[in-house]
Amino acid sequence: MSASCCGPRPDPTNSARWRAALWVALVVNAAMFGIELHAGAAADSHALEADALDFLGDAANYAISLLVAGMALAWRARAALLKGVTLALLGIFVLASTVHSALTGSSPEPETMGLVGTLALAANLAVAAMLFRFRSGDANMRSVWICSRNDAIGNLAVVAAAAGVFGTGTTWPDLIVAAVLATLGLTGGWQIARQALGELRHVRHATLQPAE
């Protein structure tokens, strides 16, 4: 047999491609956070501000993934659990902000929403396509895919909200999309945390097994 058959299999969580993909995703998300946060404040769009917070959370998640790349499964699972909880908390924050804005908010500028939302969609589609190959890995790798997928869906919703605000002249499409983004954060965080907890249970069970 060849050495490739007998030797240890390469660790996908520490591969050069995985690290390069994380660095690209980190830079893109950090840049889009700044762009969307500024545009959301200027346009008085809570959907853009909610999406900006999601970009910030994702940038932090990618940084954590780079930190634990190549570490033992237990550490990667703990990092994924932290990311899942963070994503869910961001979803709760956005949902609370949306409820508050429904009572006090003003109508946003649909032109800015549509332009920035389209730019964010293009950025996230590129990142999601790059990360697609890693979607079936461990909880940490899967969390990266879920974040990029949620971002692309959220950007589509922001563009649709811009059209809704333009067509109706009301703030409700903007607030509805903000609520959708919050729900994506909650459900995505739950998926990540559930898989991470399962991996941690597996590690503990394997550790407690007596050696033969």
Describe this structure in words.
The protein has 212 residues and is an all-alpha fold. It has a single domain, classed as Alpha-lytic protease prodomain-like (Up-down Bundle), CATH 1.20.1510. The protein is built from seven helices and no strands. It has helices at 3-6, 16-43, 46-68, 73-104, 110-131, 139-168, 172-208. Helix 3 (46-68) runs antiparallel to helix 6 and helix 3 (46-68) packs parallel to helix 7 (172-208). The two termini are 28 Å apart. Mean pLDDT is 77; it is low at 1-11.
CATH architecture: Up-down Bundle
End-to-end span in angstroms? Answer: 28 Å
Tell me the strand percentage band: under 5%
CATH fold type: Alpha-lytic protease prodomain-like
Characterize the biggest β-sheet.
Answer: none
Number of domains: 1
| Rg of Cα set | 19 Å
Got a strand count? 0
What is the average of the pLDDT values?
Answer: 77
**pLDDT under 50 segments (min length 5)?**
1-11
| Alpha plus pi helix count | 7
Which descriptors apply to this entry?
single chain; disordered N terminus; elongated; mainly alpha; Alpha-lytic protease prodomain-like; 0% strand; 212 residues
What is the strand and helix layout of this fold?
Layout: H1 3-6, H2 16-43, H3 46-68, H4 73-104, H5 110-131, H6 139-168, H7 172-208
Helix pairs in contact: 2-3, 2-5, 3-4, 3-6, 3-7, 4-6, 4-7, 5-6, 6-7
Give a nutshell description of this structure:
The protein is an all-alpha fold. The protein is 83% helix and 0% strand.
